[in-house]
Amino acid sequence: MSKLYRIAPLALSASVLALAVAAPASAAGFYLQEQSVRGLGRAYSGEAADTGAESLWWNPAAIAGVEGIEAYAGTNLVLSDSQVRDRGTTIQRPGQLAPSPVGGEPRAYDPLQAGVIPNLDAAWRVNDHLALGLAVSAPFDFTTQYDPTSFVRYQALTSRLLDLDIQPTVAVRVNRYLDVGVGFDAQYAKSTLSAALPNLSPTLPDGINTLKGDGWNYGWTAGAQLHPTDRFTLGASYRSQIEHTIGGTVTVAGLLGPLAAENGAVSGTARFTTPWIVVVGGRYVLDRHWALNVQVQRVGWSVFKSIRIDTAAGTTVIPEGYHDTTTEAVGVDYTVNPKWTLRSGIAYDPTPTPNAGRSARVPDGDRWMFSVGTTVRPSPRVELVGALSYVRLQRSQINGASTAYAGTAVATAISYDGEVTGDAVILSSGVKFRF
Hints:
By secondary structure, the chain is mainly beta. It has a single domain, classed as Outer membrane protein transport protein (OMPP1/FadL/TodX) (Porin, Beta Barrel), CATH 2.40.160. The protein is 5% helix and 58% strand. It contains two helices and 22 strands. It has helices at residues 3-19, 37-41, and strands spanning 69-86, 90-92, 100-101, 107-109, 115-125, 130-137, 142-145, 158-175, 178-197, 207-226, 232-239, 242-253, 264-274, 276-285, 290-300, 306-311, 314-319, 325-337, 340-349, 367-379, 382-404, 412-434. A 14-stranded antiparallel β-barrel has the order 1-5-6-8-9-10-11-14-15-18-19-20-21-22. The protein starts with a helix and ends with a strand.
């Protein structure tokens, strides 16, 4: 196997794999917060301090006080209106004295595809002190798509990720003031990712680089809730970082001339770490109508330092440079009557992506979220939940440089310069049963 093939296609596909889990619609970086329709309705404020099966993702102690059996199912439809615009991306092929425009479509419309994020949660009271729960979610599930002629084609074409998180949970009511819980996280990720590869002449069509891979990886979560009074609850939880190993196959096709020998497939693994998450939330019931909610999330993105690529040909390390972020949210619930509750909230969520070197595959920026929601109770055993959220993505830049076929005589330098704008709407609905 040649040095050219070992370095260029595999390294490019590995970075595709790790960066493809970015979702610019609803949360910064590649963490999707749509784990509760009720939570979305108040912009995820106070979820660590609320109770019931639908709060399992936020705090495993949330089910310690359930009565009987609870089962919840929710779905979240994400609709994005985004645009990535070229501001002077260039390419310098072998033999060129100076960089030239990369060419292709200068604007990419709606690269983030519409997607559905499901939630399934259940809780069961075993005795006066013990409750068991199960949460099934898709925290990194999404699809992005760029046109094959887009100016960002050498960074990203298709990014399709199916992620399944299964969290069995045990919660204990220690006394009337304290609940605690722990959970085990099993995550399965399956991805199909691609990017274009430049041929040596601009008159030749591009090649294509595709990676398909999957893998199971594991972590844990723990939390507690304090109930100093009947009106006030303070909750806190910690979700561990997860060290991911994704096994897959890299396929290269469409290279011509001297590069044609590099077409083919090779297997390998990509290793990277997703962030730990600390959540602290408070909920205060003012009276029989009003409840106030507040929440702060600290996300440990700095553990996403690099992606390590291992194959029989050797190891490649790709630096990332993400930084830790803090998200703040406030919200209210208004109980009109025992059968009807309204809620609303606002949140600010900064991006962990670096200002220098931001990729088109992660067209991310700081964002504001504005949400409203409702719960209707047609009977004591059934709750119907709905929510609507508007997410405003602040303007950000795509920049940085990469080299195709690095370390070889045909090294091709690409310098990216683009601008990202956009917003999103999230429509959510769910149902909860008590038995």
